[in-house]
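--- STAGE predict ---
source: upstream dedup step, 1 unique chain passed
mode: sequence only
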Amino acid sequence: INNISANELTLLYFIFEVKQALRAVTGSLTLTADVWTSRATEAYLGVSCHFLSNDWNMKSFNLSIMRGEAHWYKYNDLDRRGFS
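--- STAGE serialize ---
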């Protein structure tokens, strides 16, 4: 028998709940991405989804947060590409 910690069990339940909610979506689903840098200059990318439930309640879930390379998000690079 595997020992599953309370944190692991909570995470598994959350993943199950998110999957169930996403399967029930009958309308549109929107994905958003957000990039930021921590005070320690570590870059992060977060991906979230947003949708209206069948009873018209706004639902949002954070799908992923990834640590990346700080040079990915340099403001100078964004300026050159016209994203500022």
